[in-house]
Amino acid sequence: MSWIYLVFAGLFEVVWAYSMKLSDSFTRPIPSFITVVAMFASFGLLALAMRTLPLGTAYTIWTGIGAIGAFLVGIFWLNEPVNVTRVVAALLIIAGLLLLKFSSK
């Protein structure tokens, strides 16, 4: 169950990062509200996951899901640039996350 909490915590991290971008420095109320709610959900689920998962594994995977998710949101919804260097960097993050997952008991 901890891994499920962790995945959803990472997905909520993507939501709050995206909604924070849309909030225009917290000047737009609805995206600002979504940001705060998603942050609380993300942190709460991370805390639940950390009950049984090691700190280093849980935190790294949480931030990795957020990083890759934000990377993809940036490309597909915000028209951020795609180039070989950025894609290779994202693939290296994914490889690191997989190694952590498979090295955990």
Could you describe the 3D structure shown?
It is built from four helices and no strands. The protein is mainly alpha-helical. It has one domain. The longest helix is centred in the middle third of the chain and has 23 residues. The chain is flat, with a radius of gyration of 15 Å. The mean pLDDT is about 95.
Offer a concise description of the structure.
By secondary structure, this protein is an all-alpha fold. It is 81% helix and 0% strand. It has one domain.
Which structural class should the secondary elements be placed in?
A: mainly alpha
Q: How many structurally independent domains? A: 1
Note the gap between the termini. Answer: 14 Å
Unreliable spans are none
Biggest pleated-sheet summary: none
Overall helicity:
over 70%
Beta percentage is under 5%
Rg, Cα atoms, Å? 15 Å
Secondary-structure element order, N to C: HHHH
Give the count of helical stretches: 4
Q: What is the 3D form? A: flat
Average of the residue pLDDT scores: 95
Number of DSSP strands? 0
Write the layout of secondary structure elements.
Elements: H1 2-22, H2 29-49, H3 55-77, H4 84-103
Family: Belongs to the drug/metabolite transporter (DMT) superfamily. Small multidrug resistance (SMR) (TC 2.A.7.1) family. Gdx/SugE subfamily.
Keywords: Cell membrane, Membrane, Transmembrane, Transmembrane helix, Transport
Protein name: Guanidinium exporter
Overview features:
single chain, mainly alpha
